[in-house]
Amino acid sequence: MESVRPESVGSDRPEPVLLTEPADGVPPVVDTPAALSAAAAALAGGRGPVAVDTERASGYRYSQRAYLVQLRREGAGTVLVDPVAIDGGLDPLIPALADAEWVLHAASQDLPCLAELDLRPSALFDTELAGRLAGFERVSLGALVERVLGYQLEKGHSAADWSRRPLPEEWLVYAALDVELLTDLRSAMRDELDRQGKLDWAVEEFEAVRTAEPPGPRSEPWRRTSGIHRVRSPRQLAAVRSLWQARDDFARERDIAPGRVLPDSAIVQAAQTGPKTEGELTALPVFGGKQQRRRASMWLQALRAARRLDNDELPAASAPHDGPPPANRWADRDPDAAARLSAARAALAEIAERHSLPTENLLLPDLVRRTCWSPPEDRDAGSVAAVLRDKGAREWQIGLTAEALGEALRTSAS
């Protein structure tokens, strides 16, 4: 394929038009079974793709459930559904949307909470992913709508506590605007991908997102505590683990975001300091606050549990992993592998540049590292293609990269 560049879509437009409210106004929130049945009938009678979005309460709640579901379809208008208020779930929407292509922006963020409501698309178009494949540098919903359609969305409530009830009117305006132009954006991005010869690539990518299995639980999620790199000894790591688990149990039970129960910085400081009494604990920043004083016995119990562990019960200094070591250690551990990785990265960067793609969308960095660390015995394009396919690469990715990656793997073949 010849080198392609994203067209300056909308570059000849005047200044973007600021949208401050939906064209048809903000519809009443669907919060009863009767209203849901009526909304489902309207959506079933609509035409074409359906725009879908959700609002969660990340940063406020432990769960990632949807607190508002926004839908828009030609002929039906915009529907705002409160899934918390409706007993019995959103089942009427399942047949209403069964034949529709769903249009989402950054679909992988919304699909899990929609699946919790038994809402799953049979076909998908992801406008953010479309923007990446088209080579646009800025792919937020607002950036794409402005560049491609010439409108500026009213923003400002993405990080709000959507579990709040009643929802303020200005929040509902924001939520409705998120789906107001989504199907128009889908049409424009589809045309752009088709112009660049990338539409088939996008179809494969959208299907991969739609059918992706949800990630399993991390084996040691406490190791993601911010600032844990400052904790040196196994005993202190045990304290981090114990405090993290106590916080997680408390947060889950009360459906509060863990960071609102106790910040990571306080966990790390307590692990490093090792307070043994309530006075020593509450003398630390954060723990001296009113709420933390009430929870002091819980934190002290967690710290004591870590101190009582036998040495063979302490966590390892680093997390176990089934992949290759960090790439910055390859030169010492396996210089040939380091040479392969360097050659592979250079080849993939050139292909990505030629096709106006982010390198990480051309081929996942983790897949590249694994293939370079443990290459197939036969390093021809066919063998490499088989490895990439087995590890989940899409056919368009394999077609673009297998030959060049095979050549890179032969750089230091023994």
Automatic annotation (TrEMBL):
Residues 1-26, 312-333 are annotated as: Disordered. It holds the Pfam family DNA_pol_A_exoN. It comes from the Bacteria. Residues 233-313 form the HRDC domain. InterPro entries: 3'-5'_exonuclease_dom, Exo_C, HRDC-like_sf, HRDC_dom, HRDC_dom_sf, RNase_D-like, RNaseH-like_sf, RNaseH_sf. PANTHER family: RIBONUCLEASE D (PTHR47649:SF1). This is HRDC domain-containing protein. It comes from Saccharopolyspora cebuensis.
